Amino acid sequence: MDTERPNERKTTTTAPAWLVYTASATGLLLGAAHLTVTGGLLLSEARNPTPGYLAWMLVPVLIALAIAAVPLTLIDPRRARSPWPRRACGAIAVLTAALALFGLSALAFGADPLSVFLNPGPYALACAVAFTALTLSARKPRP
Question: pTM of the predicted model, to two decimals?
């Protein structure tokens, strides 16, 4: 017995392209901000280039590149049907929201407001908003 209804449209939801590119750009912004802050200390000779510091400088940038690549999988309708890109975007949204909370918590303890830009708080907040919007827009419609 065939359970498909011939008159019913099969709908798959793909995320809007502008939102995908925005989320990807915020991931790149997060990596560029980290590279600017940590690389700036290295270029100003305030730090000696040790292997541990170079790893601290480059590994988060590679992670940010991976974060920026995940939303691009939602553009292709074949990949958008798979649940893993939506789940990965949701996990990135939660993790960057926690990173933003920890980064901006210095303000509650009386830190200089301009020093907030030396930690990942504002950049991760933009990332969390974009990935939350992307996760919610890429979900499958309810039957």
Answer: 0.80
